[in-house]
Every structure is written in C-alpha cells, then in structure tokens.
Amino acid sequence: MRKNPGLSSETASKLDEHTQNATRGTAVVSDSTAYIGDHITLHGRELPPDEPLDIVWHTARGGWGIVQGNEVIGPQFQHRSEVIDTISTDAYGTVTYEWALPEDYGGDHRIELQTTAGEVVAKTSVTIVPWFELDTTRAKLGDSFTITGYGLGPNAITNNYQIAWDNGVVGFMTGTMNNGTATAKIRATGPPGDHVIQVWRNLRGVPFLQNNTQSPFGPVAGGRQSVWTVTVEPPENPPESTSMDSLVSEEPLASHLPSLDVESDATLEIMPTSGQPGTSARLHGRAFPPSTTVDLTWYTHVGNRVAGTPIEPEPREDVLPTVTTDESGAFSLDLTIPNGMGGTRPIVAEVGGTKVAVTGFVMQPDIVTFEPTSGPVGTEIDIELTGIGWPTYENAYFFVYDNRSLGYVCGVDMEKDVGVVRTKLRACGEPGWHFIDVYPSFFETKEELPDVGEKAHLSYQNNHPVRALPAMHLAFEITEQ
After folding, report:
1. Domain boundaries along the sequence of the chain
2. Is there a contact between 474 and 367 (Cβ–Cβ < 8 Å)?
3. Choosing a second label site near 332 at 20 to 30 A (CA), which of 113, 159, 219, 253?
4. pLDDT tens across 350-377, in order?
C-alpha cells in the first residue's frame, strides 16, 4: 500500500489504528476535544481516490418546547446535520482539511466523509468543551460586565450555568438557542474596588461547589478561565434612576387570538404592532361592508393558573369605540394603547354581533413608578411595573439587588389591574449607589430538570422562549442618616 508522503508518521499511525473501524476508509481529527473557535485538522486515508467527498457535521437544533404559546415544557433538541465543505481526495485516496469550529453546542459531534451519493466512507468525532469569556475586567459603577458562553448544552448538565458575584448568585444562563452561545450582563455594583465573578454549573439551578474539584463532568470550562477578578470604578456621572433594555419590534402570536365566528374578507391592521402602554397607534380596517357600523373590542386575559382557573381572552368594553366604514368598507382609528397585561392583546371587529376580523398588539413592559430614588437605609421604595404578560415565560419578573437574588413579582389577575404589579422594597447597604435589576424569568417549566424556574434569566436577550423580553434597571442612592 502506497503512503501519502504528506502525512506525518504520527498521523499515519493514528490512521492505522482506526482502519479496522472504518466503513471503507479511515478518518481522524488532530484534536479529540476542542473549544469553539479552535482550528482542527481532519485527515482521511484509504478513501476512494480522486473523488469529491462531503464533510458532514452532525449536531443538534435547539429551542424551547412551548404548549399553545403559553407554558414552557423545557429545552428541546433534535438531530441535524450539515455539509461543512466538499473536498476531493488525491490519487492515494487521502485528504487533509482544516477548519475553525463554528459556534455550536458542546459534547460529541460525529464527522462523516460521504460520497456525492450519500455513502459514508469514513467517520470520526470531536468533543466540544464549553468555555466562557469576559469582555472587560474594568467597568464604571452601574455599567455592566458581559459574559459570553460558547458550546453550552445540549446535555442538561452543560446547559445551565449560574453566575455569582462576590459569592452571591445573580442568576443563570443557558445556551438552549443560538447554537449553544449565550450572553449575560452583570452589573458593576459597589463599593468601588475589586470584585469576583464566577461561573458555576448544575442542572438543579444552584451552584455545585465541587465543580472544579470533584465533579464527574470535569471543571466548568474544561480548564479554561471561569473566575475573574474585576474592578469597579467610581462613575463619572450619577447613574440613571430608571432604564430599560431597547425594545424590539414584535408581531402578535396567532395562538393568543380568539377565533372568528365566520370567514370574512375583512381585515384589521395596527401600526405599530408592539409597544408599551401609552403608545400612539393607528388601527386600519379594510374590506368590511360599506357604510356599516363596526364594533371594536380590546381583549385582556383573565384566569389564575395557581387556582386552576383557565386563562382565556376576555373583552374590555371601555377601550375601543364603535366606528363606521366609508363607502369602500374601510376605516382608520387613532388610539392610545391602554395600561394593562403584556403579551398579545387581541383586537376584534364585530359586525352585527358577529366576529369578522381580528388582529393583535404586543404589549411590552414598562416602569411606571420608582420612588423615592434616594434616602437613608430602611427607606421604603415603591415600584410599579406594567405590561407584564400571562404566559409563564413572561408572567414573573425576578428582582436582583446589588447582584444578589431577591425574589419575583407576578402579573396576577386583579380585574382591570391585570398585568400591573406593585411591590415595596427596603433600601439597604452602605451609603452610595445601589442597583436593582429586574430580569425575565420562566416562573415554571413542565420538566422538573434542568431547574430554571423562579430565577433571574441572565441570557434572556438571546435565549428566552418565544419573546425577547427586556430587563429593567433601577438605581437608588443611600444617603447618610
């Protein structure tokens, strides 16, 4: 058998060891374990000579299992494969190919060499180890440090990481979506000086303190850095008392809209399709009967899952008026979005008591009240939020005080106050600025593990189910007595 002079003796030895396990040829990779971004080299031999072959990468497709756009089942993964590249063997039936591992889930990934007809002629595998990086080790008081995790999941053990600040748990991050990549922003809280950020791992949602000493799954990041000493610097200007993440444009969920009584050509359209209470919007109706009265109804949702009462859409008669179409069967209505429950707010048009058209507006959360913004230790702080939705993944917002988990609020049903939550907190800590961050949570999932229930979801911006919910940020200054 002729040998390719381009192969090293070490690589040729590896290939010889794997020959007996190959379908027709043999493939090995330069590194059996690697991190996202690493360059690895694939070597193949005893393959069909002078023939094009597809390099097929086997991995997963991840997302959240959702029931009727409402309840979270848990992380769901399905197998998927993709062709990395098409290469050609040489006259000896050998091939060498190098590439950088793209963002993907961790764990074992099978690599196959396939003919254009789909026949597998050689296979090997590589194990991706999760790892984390921190964007900076210095930040002004009130700003943020950003942690990015790569290669998270799909295994439940490697898909739930807890972030601690000065040995207090802030919340968790998960890589269920976005091919196992997740980001979390951690507030730079005081006092100014050095602090410690650490990444822990445990599917039960709380740090397993033997992660890096006695865990059967090895260290958190396979030996790469997962603990950082960071420096918080005094701010140049006082932080904002209230702020929110940027809102994104959203479309209503069809599963949250009530059914129509009849099929109709009539349509409703609202612009914009999402926003906070108080948003100015315009509702357009088309293809209705000409010169006809149309009753418009805004819907909320009522019910209580804790009490076992089904949550269903219910009309609010005090929000929208009755309109009359013009000679072409159209109308336009300017309206101000009312205060109330978050998520998809159905808008129904009725003609003669028959529902003929429906659309929806996605209500987004907002900070209504945060006062006072300063005072001595023990000051009672009034907080009111609105636009909190009824599905589990948007129903409970979790409060973190100076990067320490505190508790959650829930958009309970209270007649017309549905979606409005009020709480009172006590100011505590040394004189200076203190920070309250309000993060989305899951409230509960159908699957018991991994436990991502009543906890601050820190990777909410790119891994939250269904909706990209914003977090809310508050700052309180403790003064001397």
Report:
1. 9-128, 131-246+365-478, 254-363
2. yes
3. 253
4. 999 999 999 999 999 999 999 999 999 9
Element (H, E) at 60: strand 52-67
Q: How far apart are CA 195 and CA 87, in angstroms?
A: 50
Residues 423 and 383: beta-carbon distance below 8 Å: yes
Topology of the domain covering 131-246+365-478? Immunoglobulin-like (2.60.40)
Q: What is the pLDDT of residue 318?
A: 85
Q: What is the spatial distance between Cα 54 and Cα 79, in angstroms, rounded to a whole number? A: 18
Instruction: Decide whether 9-128 matches 254-363 in CATH topology.
Output: yes
Rounded Cα distance, 280 and 334, in Å:
7
Residue type, 246: S
pLDDT, greater one: 22 or 475: 475
Q: What is the dihedral of CA 424, 404, 201, 104, to 10 degrees?
A: 80
- Give CATH for domain 254-363: 2.60.40.1930
**Cα separation, 390 vs 348, whole angstroms:** 19
CA neighbours closer than 13 Å in the CB half-sphere of residue 181: 12
CATH number of 9-128: 2.60.40.10
Q: List the Cα angle 350/263/467 in 5-degree steps.
A: 80
| 470-481 confidence digits (pLDDT tens) | 999 999 999 987
What pTM value is reported for the model?
0.91
275: Cα separation from own chain's centroid: 20
If one compares 384 and 20, the residue with the highest pLDDT of the two is 384
- What mean pLDDT do residues 60-87 have? 94
Strands 380-386, 354-363: parallel, antiparallel or unpaired by DSSP?
unpaired
CB 55 within 8 A of CB 85: yes
Beta bridge pairs of residue 122: 113
pLDDT for 401: 98
